[in-house]
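Action item from last meeting closed. Structure (331 res):
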């Protein structure tokens, strides 16, 4: 941000349908990066460093930045006729056959496979050929890609849930990547990828997983799991940013408002935690969060406080790495 005036206030609506008359003692923990580094105050899109592969997962501060890619695409088992045979028969679950194999992706680099998903994995061999090589650098049973037993394909970047099996482990390639399943049939799958400009610092996947690679995977996994019980503030600001902590304890009375934080210095709010979570539990949604920048007459954020933290039907409902509720705290 540039130099701005930031005011955050939390207020109870005066037209409460339930007529609740409770006083709430609100506790706020706010971590702020204010006017500390050029990266914190200049437009992120212009200053964003080159990030490829797993580094893109752990840099939460660059989520708003335009990624330095020239193409984002997917290869999937969708019915090319517009019908509903999206993998049921396997007719559209490959792009071509090569001998006893089904080529399910043939990508040009520099690029990166960012996601592989299927609800129907098999134990047939899955092979990855890089940069025109005739021998696969990576070969393993298709199902084993998602079990967390083969580095660098480790949990929580790989797993299975109600929607099927998934891997978010980035697979980089400098010139090309061909993915082949050695099986007579494949059903449902989708594979997401990005292409980079030629100047991108892309190194082709190395089957010899280094200690540094494992550490990067571990950090990225911690980011995906964190947020609820872990503090991810350090990942939400540029490296080297100096953080300041603002704490607030105050009483919110019926029909009143209370200012939680106000500043006239440029910076960014890196994390926000408000408790008790039960103060916002109500079908009436009658406590509002109001945030105003730059002396604007109208707030940029004006919504029920519970909604801001992902409440549904008046109750806490989210627990993601970016926002939600953990125990008695909204973050």
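Sequence:
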């Amino acid at each position: 941000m540039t130099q701005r005036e930031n005011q955050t206030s939390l207020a109870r609506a005066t037209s409460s349908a339930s007529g609740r008359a409770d006083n709430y003692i609100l506790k706020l923990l706010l971590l702020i990066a204010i006017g500390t580094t050029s990266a914190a105050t200049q437009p992120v899109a212009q200053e964003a460093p080159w990030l490829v592969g797993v580094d893109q997962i752990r840099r939460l501060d660059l989520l708003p930045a335009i990624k330095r890619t020239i193409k984002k695409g997917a290869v999937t088992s969708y019915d090319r006729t517009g019908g509903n045979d999206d993998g049921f028969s396997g007719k559209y679950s490959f792009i071509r056959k090569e001998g006893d194999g089904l080529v399910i992706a043939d990508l040009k680099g520099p690029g990166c496979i960012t996601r592989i998903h299927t609800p129907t994995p098999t134990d047939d061999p899955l092979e990855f050929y890089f940069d025109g090589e005739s021998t696969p650098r990576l070969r393993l049973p298709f199902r084993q890609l998602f079990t967390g037993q083969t580095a660098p394909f480790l949990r929580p970047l790989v797993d299975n849930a109600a929607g099927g099996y998934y891997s978010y482990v980035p697979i980089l390639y400098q010139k090309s990547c061909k993915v082949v399943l050695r099986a007579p049939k494949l059903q449902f799958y989708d594979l997401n990828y990005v292409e980079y400009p030629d100047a991108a610092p892309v190194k082709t996947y190395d089957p010899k997983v280094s200690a540094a690679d494992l550490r990067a995977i571990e950090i990225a996994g911690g980011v995906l799991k964190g947020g609820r019980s872990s503090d991810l503030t350090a990942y939400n600001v540029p490296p080297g940013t100096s953080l300041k902590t603002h704490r607030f304890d105050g009483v919110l009375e019926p029909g009143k408002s209370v200012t939680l934080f106000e500043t006239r210095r440029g910076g960014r709010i890196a994390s926000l935690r408000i408790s008790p979570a039960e103060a916002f539990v109500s079908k009436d949604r009658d406590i509002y969060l109001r945030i105003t920048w730059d002396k604007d007459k109208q707030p940029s954020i004006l919504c029920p406080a519970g909604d801001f933290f992902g409440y549904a039907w008046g109750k806490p409902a989210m627990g993601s790495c970016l926002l939600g509720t953990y125990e008695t705290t909204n973050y």
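Note appended to the action item: The two ends are 22 Å apart (CA to CA).
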